[in-house]
Amino acid sequence: MTATALVPRQPVPALALPLVGGGRFVLGAEPPERFDLIVFYRGLHCPICAKYLLELERLAPEFNQRGVAMMAASSDDAERAQAMATKVNAQAVKFGYGLGLANARQWGLYLSTSRGTTSIGIEEPALFSEPGVFLVKPDGTLYYGAVQTMPFARPAFQDLLGAIDFAIAKDYPARGEYVGPV
Q1: How many Cβ atoms from other residues are within 10 Å of residue 32's Cβ?
Q2: Is the pTM of this model over 0.85?
Q3: pLDDT, tens digit, 9 for 90 and up, residues 117-173
């Protein structure tokens, strides 16, 4: 496998997933005022993901006030995605499911193999993606991206809100766009 890193200011890969509760999320179909916040999580088996997504749901009004639409996605099936949405009492955050692992790799996500049953007694899927957080501009280009090889030490949503405020106030451009020779 060759790791793929998305490049700021360049188009992100396509993303179209069914949503818990019905409908489909298609990135770019309904562009938000400022950003789509795409949060890829490991799946129902991950207790750290549940805690992380609870925080996102808690801060959803803050993101909405800034013109940011939110979607959490995993490779889980509909039943497991519904269980996670229920666990975090999702009201504002959309939950997409059925993320293909090839699509996950296009987004630069790392993949892991199952280690069996987790500490909360839920079986891991045979293969699943590790976390990633992305801000995508309404024009479909990457503004911010962070991927992890582990479930730990993810970007804090409160910090991300502060960064969005700064970016808006200063009209701060996406950084990390240089891909030329070094």
Answers
A1: 17
A2: yes
A3: 888 888 888 899 999 999 999 999 999 999 999 999 999 999 999 999 999 999 999
Number of Cβ atoms within 10 Å of the Cβ of 8: 20
Neighbours of 65 (CB within 10 A): 9
Contacts 24+ apart (CB under 8 A), 150-159: 151/42, 151/46, 151/48, 151/49, 152/48, 154/52, 157/55, 157/56, 157/59, 157/63, 158/59
Beta bridge partners of 71: 38, 94
Question: Exposed, middle or buried, 170 (CB in 10 Å: 0-12/13-18/19+)?
Answer: exposed
β-pairing, 24-26 vs 111-113, is unpaired
Question: What phi and psi, each to the nearest 5 degrees, are found at residue 70?
Answer: -120, 140
